[in-house]
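Write out the 3D structure for:
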Amino acid sequence: MPDTRPPAKSIVLRGIPASPGIGIGKAFVFKEEALSYVFRALARDEVRKEIVRFRQAVSRTRTEILQSRDKVLKVLGKSHAALIDVHLLILEDALFSKDIEKKITQELMNAEAALVAVLDSIGRTFSKLGDEYFRQRKDDIMDVGKLVMRHLLGQKSVTLSNLSERAVIVAHDLSPSETLSMREDLTEGFATDIGGRTSHAAILAQGLEIPAVVGLKDVTAHVATGDLVVVDGNEGLVIINPTMAVLENYRKAREIQIAESRELEKLKDLPAQTQDGHRVVLASNIEAPEEVKTALGHGAEGIGLYRTEFLYLNRHRPPTEEEHFENYRTVARQMLPYPVIIRTMDIGGDKLLPLGVSGFDDEPNPFLGLRGIRLCLRYQDLFKLQLRAILRASVEGKLKIMYPMITSLEELREANRILEEVKRDLSAKGVAFDKGLEVGVMIETPSAAMISDLLAQEADFLSLGTNDLIQYTVAVDRVNENVASLYNPLHLAVLRLIARVIEAAHQAGKWVGMCGEMAGDPTVTKILLGLGLDEFSVAASAIPKIKLLLRGASYERAQKLAQAVLQSKDQESLLKRLSTFKG
């Protein structure tokens, strides 16, 4: 990389931070070749041959997807391989192939034209659905369609595996197969026009530990191959042709991060304890059993949030009780002697449609609709199935149950009534379970925070789900790039609600944790410590950094900071107090 000032004008673009870290290198602008086809009318006697050609393309696509899945499985584990399973499910969906073959047969069009017609129809249907989940499913279907089209046309898939030198990948978007074709040893980072924190490319980048920024809107319009680019995956910035001063600052920052990472790993076996002896629990959030090893490797003292949603996604039927049981038993055993908090299914009604659950037709606004505990109480058979599996697995380790999206005391009582019913049924059948299993509540709505004193009387613990608590408190869609800047963990209303919840729990003699992204945000660690948070549950990779901050802090000083922050009159005075705090 040359050390001379680039002649081109420096440009700074802001997007969505998708994978942390700093990448510096020459840009490689990845532009997929357009797939052009010719419409051809078929003679009736050509139909059978054309269907065979289409099925051969599907078969080759399946082989290609399976090869991608094998790579994910080896590099990232089973939970990430589920992303590729989505593509297999689409490819093997009878309706997908049936509609295309129907067009070939009835409308006498060649396979390429039939494929495009079906994809256009699907695209129009999904565009009418505003939910993020369905938007991503549309992208998945289109990606599979592209793979099939390439095989129909006899074109090789464009990949990033041919890079010969280190580079920052810049693209409009990257499909899972394209992301997986990256050579990790040569990829400094990547930046895309579209995408979000939960897009396949973002999730895979995190697993591969490649710095990434997505949702930049028009980064491809500003970058040419060979331009010097900085990808700041921590702040969501991309700097094109940086000045020498900016470039040097980022080089130093990257060196510091690498050195810090090595030092932080030395903290693995040390307690999360302040300099004046105050002890907290530092746990990890996980989505699948394969992540337990990483959590323990970073020094987790438990699982503060086991998201069970992955069991329900990317499939055509709900998971069985045995599937639930095997997952929970595996995690319980691996985490001993530490506890594991299993959150019951926190999916929205929109996710029921792909699962084939009857009695549900539409969900116009999933964020404010049938989700979390509401869905569990509506579909009690699904809820009881999961509770039975958790209870059965509870004898294998230290499991706890946590209900999501509780908004009233009545919901907690009804959920507990169902739990007691399941316990009685298991006891009658002679099935063993932990009779002292703790049951907690997620506080992720303002209504739950305001009645946290009442909830704390009947729950064994409270856990702050700040991702949604912030979203609902400040009325900001956290995945909407138009208002993303308003999603603020340091909003006074948010901090006051958190303080209220912690105080309510402690007055009831209960402990309180936090499992939202805010728990892993270093800028608020000392405030949360000072407010009396008992447990920080964060992404495994964030554990060392948060532990370093906690071990370097004074609990007494942190309490003073928290009180000073709560007494702030506006955002400016709050930030000033935070920036001038020492200790």
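Residues 1-6 have pLDDT under 50 and may be disordered.
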